[in-house]
Amino acid sequence: MEMHEQAEVAAPAAKKQRKWTLKEELKKLIKPLKRPKHLSSAAEEERYNQRTWQTEGSIPFPGVSGAIEKEKKEKERAEKKRRKKEEEAKKRKDEMLKKDNG
């Protein structure tokens, strides 16, 4: 009877230990992604994040801001192209009306 009771107590403890080690392994994998190499402590990381969030518009990861800027530039280029096409179409239309009327 005692062996059975010990097994019941040991099984949840082993499961908890397994879950804990899995969490630790995930933290080890995720930590390098979050903290840039030049930052050695969590306090330095926090200061770095605060500084970058203020300068990059509340973006916690430095690489993301570059992608957002690139996307903005692409949108601006597309908008310029669209406007240019509209203006050219308007000019052609005006020329056609002048020819028809003149």
UniProtKB/TrEMBL annotation:
Positions of the UniProt region annotated as Disordered: 33-102
Tree of life domain: Eukaryota
Biased amino acid composition, Basic and acidic residues: 68-102
Protein name: Uncharacterized protein
